[in-house]
Specification:
Two copies of one chain form a homodimer.
Chain A lengths: L2 E6 L15 H11 L6 E6 L11 E4 L5 E4 L7 H12 L13 H5 L1 E5 L5
Parallel strand pairs in A: 1-2
Antiparallel strand pairs in A: 1-3, 3-4, 4-5
Pfam family, one (chains A, B): DUF1636
Organism (chains A, B): Acetobacter garciniae
Protein name (chains A, B): DUF1636 domain-containing protein
């Protein structure tokens, strides 16, 4: 499938902004873009996923599939985020078997959405 | 637009299940179905929006539009949920101006998602 991993680049994750220093969401996005890309997944920045009290946040979405939003993430979570995104992209409906999801995806789900009607 | 208001019918909202009594999400769904329907919005039950620690939860979605998930809702919120859903359906992109959103939608957003790629 053609999945998209949206990364909120405006998440502050509870930090007070420091002039000249990228916010936590921007740092997570940069770290994800520096990692080996997950197969079948485009990584896209987005301004605000409206999960501000649970940042940093990312979302996985693909046409005709369930979408997922995860929170309380940081640069230390890049490897499991990439692995989880690749597992998502390998499905036909967005539903990765529970045991095959990274622990951060099992524990830090903020919400999921049914496939959009066509 | 053709919007869908998904209602998590399995949300317990922190209550201990009582045999024979519908869980909080099922009660919210029933209350929404009993209300005057919002124009342009279909109401659909869904099993689990993965927002379990912030139930009851609902989601608004429409093709080509931003989607939203809201939480910590109950049967007392039916009127603003219906009003907010109708306002959402009246947009072309899912983005209701901030001041026109019901207070529960301004304060109880769990997440939003960008439009799905086609």
């Amino acid at each position: 499938m053609n999945a998209t991993l949206f990364v909120c680049t405006t998440c502050r994750a509870g930090e007070t902004p420091v002039e000249g220093k990228p916010v936590a969401g921007a740092r997570l996005y940069a770290a994800l873009m520096s990692a080996p890309p997950p197969e079948g997944v485009a990584i896209a920045p987005v301004e605000c996923l409206s999960a501000c009290s649970n940042g940093c946040a990312v979302a996985l979405s693909a046409p005709g599939c369930w979408s997922y939003v995860y929170g309380r993430l940081g640069v230390d979570d890049v490897t499991p985020i990439i692995e989880g995104a690749a597992a998502y992209a390998a499905t036909t409906d967005g539903l990765v078997p529970w045991r095959e999801r990274p622990q951060i995806f099992r524990r830090q789900s903020l919400a999921r959405l049914p496939p959009q009607e066509r």
